[in-house]
Amino acid sequence: MAGPYPSPWAKLLLAALLSASLPGDMANRCKKAQVKSCTECIRVDKDCAYCTDELFREQRCNTQQELLAAGCQPESILFMRSSFEITEETQIDTTLHRSQVFPQGLQARLRPGEEKLFEFQVFEPRESPVDLYILMDFSNSMSDDLANLKNMGQRLADILGKLTSDYTIGFGKFVDKVSVPQTDMRPEKLKEPWPNSDPPFSFKNVISLTHDVEGFRNKLQGERISGNLDAPEGGFDAILQAAVCTGAIGWRPDSTHLLVFSTESAFHYEADGANVLAGILNRNDEKCHLDAMGTYTQYKTQDYPSIPTLVRLLAKHNIIPIFAVTNYSYSYYEKLHTYFPVSSLGVLQEDSSNIMELLEEAFYRIRSNLDIRALDSPRGFRTEVTSRTFQKTKTGSFHIRRGEVGTYNVLLRAVEDVDGTHVCQLAEEDQRGNIHLKPSFSDGLQMDVGIICDVCACELQKEVRSARCHYRGDFMCGHCVCNEGWSGKTCNCSTGSLSDTQPCLREGEDKPCSGRGECQCGHCVCYGEGRFEGHFCEYDNFQCPRTSGFLCNDRGRCSMGQCVCEPGWTGRSCDCPLSNATCIDSNGGICNGRGFCECGRCHCNTQSLYTDTTCEINYSAIRLGLCEDLRSCVQCQAWGTGEKKGRTCEQCSFKVKMVDELKKAEEVVEYCSFRDEDDDCTYSYTVEGDGSPGPNSTVLVHRKKDCPPGSFWWLIPLLIFLLLLLALLLLLCWKYCACCKACLALLPCCNQGHMVGFKEDHYMLRADLMASDHLDTPMLRSGNLKGRDTVRWKITNNVQRPGFATHTASTNPTELVPYGLSLRLARLCTENLMKPGTRECDQLRQEVEENLNEVYRQVSGAHKLQQTKFRQQPNAGKKQDHTIVDTVLMAPRSAKQTLLKLTEKQVEQRAFHELKVAPGYYTLTAEQDARGMVEFQEGVELVDVRVPLFIRPEDDEEKQLLVEAIDVPVGTATLGRRLVNITVIKDHASGVVSFEQPEYLVSRGEQVARIPVIRRILDNGKSQVSYRTQDNTAQGNRDYVPVEGELLFLPGETWKELRVKLLELQEVDSLLRGRQSRRFQVQLNNPKFGARLGQPHAATIIIGEPDEMDRNFVNQTVSSSSLTRADLGAPQNPNAKAAGSRKIHFNWLPPPGKPMGYRVRYWIQGDSESEAHLLDSKVPSVELTNLYPYCDYEMKVCAYGAQGEGPYSSLVSCRTHQEVPSEPGRLAFNVVSSTVTQLSWAEPAETNGEITAYEVCYGLVNEDNRPIGPMKKVLVDNPKNRMLLIENLRESQPYRYTVKARNGAGWGPEREAIINLATQPKRPMSIPIIPDIPIVDAQGGEDYDSFLMYSDDVLRSPASSQRPSVSDDTEHLVNGRTDFAFPGSANSLHRMTAVNAAYGTRLSPHLSQRVLSTSSTLTRDYHSLTRTDHSHSATLPRDYSTLTSLSSQDSRGTVGVPDTPTRLVFSALGPTSLKVSWQEPQCERVLLGYSVEYQLLNGGELYRINIPSPGQTSVVVEDLLPNHSYVFRVRAQSQEGWGREREGVITIESQVHPQSPLCPLPGSAFTLSTPSAPGPLVFTALSPDSLQLSWERPRRPNGDILGYLVTCEMAQGGGPATTFRVDGDNPESRLTVPGLSENVPYKFKVQARTTEGFGPEREGIITIESQDGGPFPQLGSHSGLFQNPLQGEYSTITTTHTSSTEPFLMDGLTLGSQHLETGGSLTRHVTQEFVSRTLTTSGTLSAQVEQQFFQT
Fold first, then answer.
1. Residues 356-380: tens digit of each pLDDT
2. pLDDT of res. 713
């Protein structure tokens, strides 16, 4: 409703009230809004109003109080009023046995952003009618449950009778949809799926709700089970029909509705009906479809309902679900039941024998919960229910007390915008509606709500072409709305002509309107929305005077450059109040009569320290400071003492008067008393008057001081001496007099008869499960716990090997060994002490080490302490909060007893030098044994003895340790259990961790020593070891920074690097002339997670200067006379570090000798070393560039001199850093229905690291494909789940979908698609949801915003199901290599890439200009791409199909011409499109661009793509033919011309036709549990008609390999396929295939088999060619290769496609008149020998060599 208020005074009153409560920011919101009309204004905010006064000149859109203050007449202010009215309010009657609410109806009309809070009452009676409907799974698996159900009728009635006297019972049964694949559709199975069973059905209402318990039980007796095929059941169909068929089921309107759902299987839900066989695409219409027999009829035409649908419908019909499920399916329903606000979940036994107990428990649990939910709410409203009385649960329900009226607070809010769109621009149904505020057990409150979006009435009464607007505009709402081309308040200014600016020029200025506005029609229109004012905009309203930084003291407003103060304030900046209220004193006067009030402040006639703001005396201030202020002057004038004695005493402003007696304290202003420091006497004085003595004032001082009497100080030393003497006598008696000791022991305080001993006598430990290298062994004290006892203990290692410890100790007595020392300090432990590096920890460490070093330096050969750290010891009695220090002392092996005695002595003295320690605790650990002491304080019953376990790599498989309690040196306890045996069993190690070498040489100038640690994997898993440094001749914190910590090897990791920071040289040894070689050790220990330490597990690090080390090596070389000048050693300590995603920094130490330079070889890890790149360097470091991101490289270096190369260094591995991934592969949509789609995508073609997550965004778009509102985001944090099911999309609306990937470097670019599901064909065959797919509800309301469920929560189908799912065979090649598995339906990508490799200048005199090339097809596996630039021999490795091409080495181009682009990579984006990528080639000139050419391999049109940007190194090619081979050529261009081209062949193989509706759907015909493809196929010819085929086991078996299926067929067709089965699982399998024909290409396919079925195929083509026929006669002129053919000679050639300029295709076998295609292998060593001999021979191959080869 719009219109002015009826009364101006009411309007003013409302404005005043609003001004008191409205925040400042909200008040400006209306004013800041750029609105053009009254309607737009009132929609900005609920508090906005509009002024229609024609004479009003301020901004018309503002708050009511602002408009009134600005002069708008109250009757001209237009404001929309909200309304709230209760329409139905029947009071609650607590005597009725039914649920009730108050009120029952209301009507609300709110403005956008407005809220209304009201109370809502709900009454739940103690006893109310109950309707119980049992819905049971009748599949065959529930046959035993049915027998128990038939006997439960009476028991069920008894349980319900306890709850209420008015109840009904009903029964229904369900199985699943009677369609494929849910049900066996064979006629005999449709009649009787199991013996003695009923035909299959979806849902059937057997017994409607009834009071007749006996009839209920009788009807159950005739029921029989039925059956279906798949494991999930169709229970959701049954729940929906039971809810909506209220009449057929018999639900009563005023009763509590309970639905018991009993099953032992999972559930089907929405989109499951649309699987590949059923093809049910229609959504469930949520209506009742039961026939006269109670059978559900629409099971074939409607899909299962979704979970949000069930939640909504059950709440709408007041139905509370109770899920009674078996343990097998409990996990599925555990998550499902949380989506229902009030529900219950219980575990059934396998035969449902406990269903009565389960139901009884559920009834009582449900009765105590109440959910209040807003149903059918328009999008423009939000409802929130809270309660001050009842607690809210996680699901949103309330814990209530039945029989009471509960009061709840309901907040109804009209939102301002929805998804970025103003609520008034939404559809009518989103602005108005009926909200059903419904409790769980009653009908609830009906709210008729609407949002006020009315149009202002004044806009409907506008004057068109009004005279007040010079007929150039319409007069509306108090102002003119000008036509186009006119402006001004009366539309009298033409915007098309320049107005005269002279009236807008101020005298003395040259800019119109002072440069702060525009001149329109001779008047200035100022900028700044009110900031500038005046006829010429000369006043700045931000420049008025300020007080305390506030404009006009925040008590006025700035206008025309001056402050216009609010009433009651004055002054230039409104800082002076007109009222004298702030000057009134405590007596009601002004300024206490001692001053005058001005500007709200008192100005006193006389100023004093003790007068306040109203000129009154502040006695509290006097008491605080007056005595102290006068003290020094009183002392110096009265006694001549104190700080002012002497001349400064004359500066005192008052005189003192000595009196014999002072007035009482209550008679004076202040009574003061102080002690005189000179004589220790006390003097007193008083202050009278106003407390501010002047020059003529007098202070009265008491003449006599109070001095203390003489003291008996000489008695104190005598008493102390006597006490000490008594204590000494008692101590001597106790220590040396046995009689006295025995007598004292009889006293109660020294009571004997208690015992100490270990709690257990044996412990069994597994080394791989141990988390530390020590064991806390409990020791108990029994009997009288008074007094203190200490116990000495020891532990011996390897007691199963007699004499082991003695033999070890006698090996080398002077050898330095580490001794572990633990002491308890006499200070509490803090959190900072246990954090190394904190200031508190460092300070205490320094203090401990200084004092302990001072004590232990008397031990001969002992070094300083190191590795000091702090901890707490639990179970240590009353001192468990004290700090325990653990440290390591290096000392000779023979010093053990000396260290033990010295430690016990210092602990007994409670101090190590100046370091205080707690008595009764220490531990000293040697090599094979340890000794220590623990303490029992008074009242302590148990303490832990922390014993070391001496875990060593050389330990026996089962070793024994013995812990022994030795004696009780302090206390009267006797020893009980003295011995503890500890057995440590060493399990089989999962990995062996060690250093690469025992010594490493580092230069001090490197600043960091990098020590590699390697792991040899035995059983792939994680391994962990600890490491720490140890001093030798190098000292920690002087030569290096000590480190310790743990190394964790994740599964698959084999290499880690330790880094130790080196320090600059501080002291100079004059004998070494300033150059010192120091050494320290790094030790590995404490292996965990099944790891074992290998050899060496200790490494020595030698620190020296580079040139000094070179000199030492040279001297050693000269002195030994065994090396010549030309002999160079291997470079030392090679180290590689990634410097980015495409760079690696590789450095090393110079070797012995004087090298001229270095040669570095590097290659991708896993490739053959023959494919390595070479770099030359003159310095001991190099930077490797142009590398692949996140790729493992191997490298080594050698030095060379005048006489040649020296040996290579050890191999070093390094991985480049990650880069953000490329965009994901093509988005695919499986359109399940017009509102449900399954979105899937492929992994990015260039992962550039390990993909960690995907982000999917989707949102509505308009006709221009622009977003409408914000995008919704879903984070898929499992990178294997490249699929998402989105439900409840808006029908016939286009959506924009984006997907982007993330790796360790961040988020990559996004892939985008816009699709309208309504325009897509409904797929009669679609891929079902695979496990672990996120499912989101696109239209979830306020209660379902967080609704997210994974499909692995739902049991899909058994392992034998024929449903396809996405294959998990994708082998992610993390080392920068691309995964070429296209996630299309049953698709696999075959890749073949040819790269140049110059094996030699020629093979024979006749082949000098020919090209010999081999190629292979890559199927779901990685095959290396190589490039070799050497003319010497190269061998194709067996483990990889290497794609190479041989070209002349002399064909290098002109200087400045680009080299060949490297690393041609193909990435499938679909069956008909792919992405071609390459790496920028080397070039000495600036690149201008690239050219990409491609055509069918067997000929056809040539396509060319020119790329003018040199930074673009990839291109997407569309519209390719699937299952066809293409040859691609890429070359680069510079100013010097075109470079050599890189050539590659690619085939995208797909089993789905591009026009099929299934294309391009993700997934394959293989399930997630099948194995990956076997390793590459290797062929070995045995005879002209037989060969041997071998392959390696799959890289990911995904289970136990049972065997392999091998298929052999002619590549050209023409014959039946032959299959072979190879049983067993071996690392390498072999098969001999006889009966083949010569010169015929054969295609072989190999699949691995597990219990889950067959995996994908590995394919290869082979031809056994003879010299008597076949294609070789075409090359008869080339006699250099096969000069003397022998009878029966044969060889093997693996062929698929050939990279050639003039191809000739013959069904997969490619030969040419100028090309010879060879490949494969004969036998492993023979083939290598033959290739080597052939390629290294520049002339012809002799007949002898050929004969030898073929005979072999």
1. 777 777 777 777 778 888 888 898 9
2. 66
More confident residue, 277 or 497: 497
User: Looking at this protein, which amino acid is placed at residue 1502?
Assistant: L
Q: CB 1724: neighbour CB atoms within 10 A?
A: 12
Residue with tokens 């609410």: 101
Reported as a pLDDT band with limits 50, 70 and 90, residue 1358 is very low
Beta bridge partners of 1562: none
Helices (H) and strands (E) in the chain, counts: 23, 106
Rounded to the nearest 5 degrees, what angle is found at the Cα of 1618, between the Cα atoms of 1617 and 1620?
Answer: 145
* CB 1735, CB 1397: distance < 8 Å: no
Give the integer Cα–Cα distance in Å for 1475 and 1453: 28
Distance (Å, whole) CA 1587 – CA 1589: 7
Phi, psi of 712 (to 5 degrees): -100, 60
What is the average per-residue pLDDT within 1094-1103?
A: 87
DSSP-based three-state secondary structure for 1264: coil
Detail the DSSP E strand segments found in 1453-1507: 1462-1470, 1473-1479, 1487-1496, 1503-1507
Pick from 75, 219, 240: nearest CA to 149: 219
Comparing C-alpha atoms, which of 1537, 1577, 1530 is closest to residue 1394? 1530
C-beta separation of 824 from 921 below 8 A: yes
Contacts of 785 (CB under 8 A, 6+ apart): 754, 936, 938, 939, 940, 941
| Strand ranges inside 301-444, DSSP E | 319-326, 344-348, 369-370, 372-375, 381-386, 398-399, 405-414, 417-418, 421-422, 432-439
Q: What is the mean pLDDT of residues 129-133?
A: 88
Backbone angles phi, psi at 1633, to 5 degrees: -110, 110
Maximum alpha-carbon separation in the chain:
149
C-alpha distances in Å from residue 1658, one per residue of 373, 1425, 1442, 1635, 1646: 58, 19, 16, 22, 5
Give rounded-to-5 percent helix, strand, coil for the chain.
Answer: 20, 35, 45
**Mean pLDDT value across residues 735-756:** 58
Written as six digits, the tokens of 1750 are 């073929």
Its pTM surpasses 0.85: no
Q: How confident is the model at residue 146 (pLDDT cuts 50, 70, 90)?
A: confident
Distance between CA 1374 and CA 923 in Å, rounded?
49
pLDDT band for 228, please (50, 70, 90 cuts): confident
In the chain, the N- to C-terminal Cα span, in Å, equals 105
Q: Is the pLDDT of residue 1294 over 60?
A: yes
Instruction: State the Cα–Cα distance between residues 156 and 149, nearest whole angstrom.
Output: 10
Each residue of 1727-1749: pLDDT tens digit?
A: 222 322 222 222 333 333 333 33
Torsion of CA 1595, 1600, 1603, 1604, to 10 degrees: -30
Beta partners for residue 204, in sequence order: 173, 295
Q: How far apart are CA 940 and CA 1460, in angstroms?
A: 81
CA–CA gap between residue 352 and residue 733 (Å, rounded):
80
- The amino acid sitting at 1717 is E
**1516-1531 pLDDT, tens per residue?**
898 888 777 888 899 9
Rounded Cα distance, 252 and 471, in Å:
70
The candidate with the shortest Cα–Cα distance to 780, out of 797, 795, 794, 761, is 761
Please say whether the beta carbons of 1137 and 1145 come within 8 A. yes
Spatial separation of the C-alpha atoms in residues 544 and 553, rounded to whole Å: 10
472 vs 514: CA distance, rounded Å? 30
CA 1640/CA 1635 separation, integer angstroms: 12
Three-state DSSP class for residue 854: helix
d(CA 1388, CA 1386): 7
